[in-house]
Design goal:
Layout: E1 5-8, E2 11-22, H1 27-30, E3 60-70, E4 73-77, H2 96-102, E5 112-114, E6 127-130, E7 133-136, E8 142-146, H3 147-154, H4 156-161, H5 166-176, E9 180-183, E10 187-188, E11 193-197, E12 206-212, E13 215-219, H6 228-231, H7 243-260, E14 264-265, E15 274-280, E16 283-288
Parallel strand pairs: 4-5, 5-8, 8-9, 13-14
Antiparallel strand pairs: 1-2, 2-3, 3-4, 6-7, 10-11, 11-12, 12-13, 14-15, 15-16
The structure holds zinc ion.
Zinc ion binds near residues 119, 121, 222 and 268.
């Protein structure tokens, strides 16, 4: 079994990668409430998450997605930046499609595309181009997300603030095809896979809890986007829409995950993003690996 797979009882989680990139906004601007020297405490421990071998001014960020197989269903968790080229990432192109192909996962097999939230780095491969038109990339899937995000990101003022027209390309194409099932709160996708509301990063942000045969794993989405937030849970990136609520959600989730030792899966941490919350000399840290 490759290191990109995790077994949770009768369920299976496969890590997928859309890209690993240098985020172009410098750390100092991306994390407005973090003193720049604050990162120094984490540069050795999480060297892969900073440029220049851990010493740089920018963040290296993984754009991970996951496939969950449970009770005969195939569920894709998030769809990355998409085919691109992504202009503000210097023209990078997402590689999720190639990774699915390499892992012998046929797009027609996907029953559910679950979107943790509707930021552009999580919805990019919802649609693909065919004969000059955008079509749903997963033709047999229902696309599932919290209704609060659908409503929020469709608001004209929010839509107008976005740099790119990704809602039209990645959400409305799917909506017009009648393939969206909005969720109104915590919901089971199978008996073993539960979507739970973890708001703050966005109004409808959701995580996934996989539970089977007494085992658990938590796919946390963007509750934490850098492992330093395990220790400094009040550190909030620009992308947290409601920093106070995001911090409260992080606090509650980290307490739970530390208490029961649940494996945690983090799409923006170094691939494959599998790890645990551990305590070292009184402080919490991210420990990569199973
Ligand atoms: Zn994200």
């Amino acid at each position: 079994m490759g290191d990109f797979q995790m077994i949770v009882g009768n369920a299976e989680i496969v890590a997928l990668s859309d890209m690993n990139c240098v985020y172009p906004t410098p750390l100092a601007d991306l994390w407005p409430n973090v003193p720049y020297e604050g990162w120094d405490a984490f540069r050795d421990r999480y060297g892969d998450t900073f440029t220049d071998g851990g010493h740089g001014t920018h963040m290296n960020i993984e754009i991970g997605c996951y496939l969950v197989r449970s009770q005969g269903k195939t569920i894709l968790i998030d769809t990355g930046y998409g085919p691109g080229p992504v202009e503000y990432l210097g023209g990078l192109k997402g590689e999720l499609w190639a990774d699915l192909t390499a892992k012998k996962i046929d797009s027609a097999q996907v029953d559910t595309v679950f979107l943790s939230h509707l930021h552009l780095d999580h919805v990019g491969w919802n649609s693909i181009e065919q004969d000059g038109h955008l079509i749903p990339a997963f033709p047999n899937a229902r696309y599932v997300m919290h209704r609060a995000d659908l409503d929020h990101f469709r608001r004209p003022d929010v839509h107008a603030r976005s740099r790119y027209p990704y809602m039209d390309e990645c959400i409305e194409v799917i909506a017009r095809a009648g393939m969206i099932d909005p969720l109104d709160g915590d919901s089971n996708l199978t008996d073993e896979v539960r979507a739970v509301h973890t708001p703050g990063h966005t109004p409808g942000h959701m995580s996934i809890v996989v539970s089977s045969q007494g085992q658990r794993a938590h796919i946390q989405g963007d509750v934490l986007i850098h492992p330093a937030q395990v220790t400094e849970e009040h550190w909030t990136p620009l992308f947290d829409g409601d920093p106070a609520l995001a911090t409260l959600t992080r606090h509650k989730l980290l307490n739970e995950l530390e208490a029961d030792g649940t494996p945690v899966i983090s799409c923006h941490f170094p691939a494959p993003g599998f790890g645990r919350i551990v305590r070292v000399q009184g402080r919490r840290y991210w420990q990569a690996g199973l």
